[in-house]
């Protein structure tokens, strides 16, 4: 990130978290590894400048706190704000799935690994939907494997800065806005997202479908195209059944299910999980 670093190694946040190194700078902030002086473990510290126009960390904290106790979620350790920055502290995880895929010899995972990882991502997506939020930026770099021997085969969902509440006070689905504005990442966005339509639960699943294809084949047909409109048109015209050649036969039903869904619809997560489990059992 071009912004000056908000913290330096050795800085201590709220008398508890001692910064060791900067591990990332995203579009909206900075991420540091820090040492928790109370629990004696390494943690992740996410910051955004209090001065920046687009404040997303408040949403991150809201969603992360609501998700506590659910599977595939980092533990929330603290958060707050001062004159300089807003911050959130959570468990530190291992490498993200984008880094891991690119580090493979053929830039792809085995089919078995792809299915197991994607099933866990499906479960994580169901968790966030169950608390009334959409993620809206489902992509490999927003999922990490655990860092410890006990969690290293477990997938964790990260980054809730673009999340949106899709339910109203009564628990029903909010009315869709006619023009919602693009959210997400071009490579993995659904056709709806490209059209600036209000995103629903099924749009997070479209992104999972595109991730699965990339995990298995190492690439998506539009990977080299940067232009959002061009990619949107390509996705709309593309015969998605071509992707099924790379996947177990069950995934015809996965594709048909997500194609059948509209904004208000609740996906049949159990049915989709069963498709994964059946195909994994045969591997």
Main attributes of the structure:
283 residues; alpha+beta; six-stranded antiparallel beta sheet; two-stranded antiparallel ribbon; 10 strands
Quick overview:
With 283 residues, the chain is an alpha+beta fold. It contains 8 helices and 10 strands.
Question: What do these coordinates show?
Answer:
A hairpin with a 4-residue loop joins strand 3 and strand 4. It contains 8 helices and 10 strands. The chain has 283 residues and is α+β, with helices and mostly antiparallel strands. The strands form 3 sheets. A 6-stranded antiparallel beta sheet has the order 1-2-3-4-6-5, with helices on one face.
Show the helix and strand layout.
Elements: E1 12-13, E2 17-26, E3 29-36, E4 41-49, H1 57-67, E5 76-81, E6 85-91, H2 97-102, H3 111-130, E7 133-134, E8 143-145, E9 155-157, E10 164-165, H4 191-194, H5 201-217, H6 228-237, H7 251-260, H8 269-282
Antiparallel strand pairs: 1-2, 2-3, 3-4, 4-6, 5-6, 7-10, 8-9
Helix pairs in contact: 3-5, 3-8
Family: Belongs to the protein kinase superfamily. CK1 Ser/Thr protein kinase family.
GO cellular component, one term: microtubule cytoskeleton
Pfam families: Pkinase
């Amino acid at each position: 990130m071009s912004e000056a670093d908000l913290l330096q190694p050795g800085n201590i946040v709220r008398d508890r978290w001692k910064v060791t190194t900067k591990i990332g700078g995203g579009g909206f902030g900075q991420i540091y590894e820090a040492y928790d002086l109370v629990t004696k473990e390494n943690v992740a510290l996410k910051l955004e400048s209090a001065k920046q126009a687009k404040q997303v960390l408040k949403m991150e904290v809201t969603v992360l706190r609501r998700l506590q106790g659910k599977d595939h979620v980092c533990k929330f350790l603290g958060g707050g704000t001062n004159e300089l920055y807003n911050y959130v502290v959570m468990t530190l995880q291992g490498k993200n799935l984008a880094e891991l895929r690119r580090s493979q010899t053929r830039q792809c995972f085995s089919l078995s690994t792809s299915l197991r990882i994607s099933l866990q991502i499906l479960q994580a997506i169901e968790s966030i939907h169950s608390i009334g939020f959409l993620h809206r930026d489902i992509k490999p770099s927003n999922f990490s494997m655990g860092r410890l021997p006990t969690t290293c085969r477990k997938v964790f969902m990260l980054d809730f800065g673009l999340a949106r509440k899709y339910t109203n006070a009564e628990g029903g689905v909010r009315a869709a806005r006619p023009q919602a504005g693009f959210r997400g990442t071009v490579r993995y966005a659904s056709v709806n997202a490209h059209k600036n339509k209000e995103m629903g639960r099924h749009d997070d699943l479209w992104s999972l479908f595109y991730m699965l294809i990339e995990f298995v084949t190492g690439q998506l047909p539009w990977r080299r195209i940067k232009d959002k409109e061009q990619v949107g048109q390509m996705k709309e015209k593309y015969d998605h059944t071509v992707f099924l050649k790379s996947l177990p036969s069950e995934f015809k039903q996965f594709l048909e299910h997500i194609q059948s869904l509209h904004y208000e619809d609740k996906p049949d997560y159990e049915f989709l999980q069963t498709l994964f489990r059946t195909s994994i059992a045969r591997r």
